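One record is kept unedited as follows:
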Amino acid sequence: MPTAAILPVKRFALAKQRLEPALGQGSRRALAAAMFADVLGALRHSTLIDTVVLVSSEPTVRDIAADQELELVPDVAEEGQSNAALAGLARALGLGYERALLVPGDTPLIDPLELDNLVSSSALRELDVAIVPDRHGAGTNALLLRLASSFDPQFGPGSRERHTEQARRRGLRHSVEELPSLLLDIDTADDLAELRRAFDEQRGRAPRTQGVIAQMERTRRSAIPA
């Protein structure tokens, strides 16, 4: 079944503001850009994602979309991830796709093989929506949607329950599918610490994000008086 990936991307200068106590603006911007690059790289390496639709007003994302011949939907309103996701879904439907995978740009550990397993699952092909939760079990880090199902993404705190309730209310066939590489999204200092632990255990993951984290650590150490 043809599947498009939808990747909403907030402007890097405005991203990750909940990390402000831990990171300065320059570091937050670099981190947001690196995570986006790693997520996009994973989507591009998936063998079962037919196209990637980027929804953003970030100039860097616009340039990447042009260079890599990706679909770009300008996020003119910038009214949050859910509205950006709806714009991406509309573009995917207009392009003739039957399903779409919604992923955020702050899940840098995302594994293309896990995405392929999700998309190719024969059981999930019969569903209207598969909900992929975050590591706390409260949020949503991905949605696999049948575009004809008229399901409305409602991201943010507590979104897993909102998504499952909406599916039940509308009589949609749905399931909750946990993917190890999509459990961690980076919003808080605790998430950042968890990401550092993951990099300590697996050095080859998310190379751009790992490089930015390493540079932050070098900068921190150089600022400590000898």
User: Anything to note?
Assistant: The chain has a mean pLDDT of 94. The chain has one domain: 3-223.
